[in-house]
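Predict structure. Input: 3-hydroxy-3-methylglutaryl coenzyme A reductase, 438 residues.
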Amino acid sequence: MNTPVTGFSKLSKSEKIDWIVSNYFTHKQAAKDLLMNYWNADAKLQQLHDEFIENTITNYYLPFGVAPNFLINGKLLTIPMAIEESSVVAAASKAAKFWLDRGGFKTQVIGTTKIGQVHFMFHGDTKKLETFFNHIKPQLLADTQAITANMNKRGGGILDISLRDKTTELSGYYQLHVSFETLNAMGANFINSCLEQFATTLKREALLYEGFSESEKQIQVIMSILSNYVPECLVRAEVSCPVTELTDGTHTNAEAFAKRFVQAVKIAEIEPYRAVTHNKGIMNGIDAVVLATGNDFRAVEAGIHAYAARNGAYSSLTHAEINDGIFRFWIEIPLALGTVGGLTGLHPLVTFALELLQKPSAKELMEIVAVAGLAQNFAALKSLTTTGIQEGHMKMHLMNILNQFQASDTEKNQIIAHFKNHVVTHRAVVEALENLRK
Ligand code: MEV
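Output follows.
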């Protein structure tokens, strides 16, 4: 039985590793060597990564790939993607190429407003609280001026503060509900700093307010935090073409394919079991670009899934229709992204990814990410409604199976050639490898 450790974060990196391997590993040197194998030879670069989080012991690699040929509003882009799932980048590239020949992707940012809240308890007269709020509103704004000055200069800042009465849902619960425009920054630090200042001002001014009784003066702030639900920070991406052009040569009947495709989307609109998987496929594209560009994919995931359930049932993020012989397929998603601040200027690969994308504004990045999600969904539905997903998926997974069995380069080449015209299954790959090794 191991004993708890105290002061772990104060230990040096080597001391931390020694403690870990001596407590949890049988092959101590092998475990240590493995961790050190993933250290960067460039000490400065390694230090940068060490300092991103606490208790870093090594780096965790993900493949960083690119999907070329994305035509977005007439601009041709190559999209960076950080992801481990074997078929995602290939699927994105295929979808990009397909739509490149059909006018590409059209996008539109619908809104960029973000939300933050000060959650507090007030047990008293709501009317008095409303009067108090209107009285201190200018003070709330004045007290955040040091924080907002730079953002204001660039055209952003606090858009509005309102008082929200939530007492019918929870006794005594009110909010300062605040909307923000954070321009090219994701804005989490900016928003949270403003909110914490609002909380301080709220408590201070309540104590001084003569309209309150002694007990009403004791406003209890529970917490101040931005919301990752951003339904007004919304982007739309779309593709369309005549139904007759919805073929890549493999589907003889474009119209039948279009109809099946639209049915598949309709199923995801009304059936939550399917909607979750449908949207997961969309997130394959979205997360990969969000991660490559140094944005917070957990925030994006949480916000998007909440949006997918906004009407009371979890539903598809994409929609499709056939109207007057035209096939249209679109996505609408909330995305709070930044192209300045955070990791953007810090992580060299993030800087690279943003330069590859031609240094987009946050709005442009919203559009690119939405396109990546739409493209991924198009590729998935195209496979699902025609050949099935496993054909392409297993072809891409073949290399993982070969690596699992430590296939040599020669073996890999021979097996890949063999499976060019054979169905890939785990069993079939193992058998082919065994035959080769006989
Ligand atoms: C796999 O990562 C994603 C899919 O399951 C998405 C879908 O079913 O639409 C293929």
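The pocket of (R)-mevalonate is lined by residues 85, 277-278, 280-281, 284, 380, 384, 389 (CB under 6 Å).
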